[in-house]
Amino acid sequence: MAQKSSNSNLEIYKVKKTNKVVKVLIYIGLVIWVLINLFPIYYMFTFSLKNNSEIFTTNVIGLPQNWLWSNYKEAMSRGNMLRNFMNSIFVSATTIAISLVASLMATYAITRIVWKGRKLLNSIFMLGITIPIHVALYPIYVILTKTHTTSTYASLIIPYSAFALSMAIMICTGFMNDIPTELDEAARIDGCGLAATFFNVIAPLMKPALATIGIYTFLQCWNEFMFASVFINDSNHKTLPVGVAELAGRTTTDWGIVGAGLALATFPMLFVYIFLSRNIQESFMAGAIKG
After folding, report:
1. Is the dihedral of CA 56, 58, 59, 65 positive or negative?
2. What is the pTM of this model?
3. Own/partner pairs for 115-121, CB < 8 Å, 24+ apart?
4. How far apart are CA 115 and CA 99, in angstroms?
């Protein structure tokens, strides 16, 4: 009886799998879902090429009647966006470099070196995942004020790196636990010390994890606004999200220029994710299987 039930279920599954109507409905649903997700990007792009009249009254969601590419030029010149863009690149790149080096070394010390308290330290790092970054806004601001490091690149790089470290160590741990310890022993037999084993054996095998950490850290700190707006008062050190916010005037606002600033801040992140999304998915899947 159970055999007949399983066979009937299998037949139903085959019918559903090969039914052309079902396939068509699935594809239609997927197309609708893609359009829904792409619409905000389309709206932001067309929004950045219109004037206030088109945005709010005559042409809300259509293509621009007059393609105002000058909005981008105005956004770059009026809001010092080029300098803000370069600041964001510098802060993000430095944060990524620090996160990669610190997480890889910390994971190696926790997983491959036997010493008292390593499990406790790993638990402390994992606790950091549960703490939202903006909860620490006030204590970090007090520390930066007392150390006279506000309005500097360090006031953003250090907090960003610290809050990225917990997730980075978790990702690295999943990969490093699957690397056989026999490789370490073989390296020591060949005369490699601790540092040589780390740089010549372990680090090259961790490239997928490092790619994931780099992308994750970039997406986390590129559009971060709260720390950047509170810790930076110097226009020479402001990042892109703060620059976009300052494009809005106190009395009247040219929203097309604001949209251009938003596009300049958003599209680089989208391009990074589009071209490297496969690496992100493969790295997380590999880490899950290895863990």
Report:
1. negative
2. 0.77
3. none
4. 23
Distance from C-alpha of 103 to C-alpha of 26, rounded to nearest angstrom: 42
| Contact of 96 with 214, CB cutoff 8 Å | yes
User: Would you state the pLDDT for residue 90?
Assistant: 94
Q: Which of 47, 110, 100 is nearest to 212 (CA)?
A: 100
The percent of residues above 70 in pLDDT, for the chain, comes to 86
Q: Hey, what domains does the chain have and what are their CATH numbers?
A: 2-47 (no CATH), 77-290 (1.10.3720.10)
* Nearest Cα to Cα of residue 176 among 201, 210, 196, 202: 202
pLDDT at 203 over 80: yes
Q: Give the closest residue to 280 by CA, choosing from 171, 126, 161, 176.
A: 171
Contact indicator for 147, 84 with CB cutoff of 8 Å: no
- Token representation of residue 281: 């998915």
Question: Would the pLDDT of 188 be above 80?
Answer: yes
Closest to 61 measured CA to CA, from 84, 87, 38: 38
**CA proximity to 106, closest of 167, 31, 51, 29:** 167
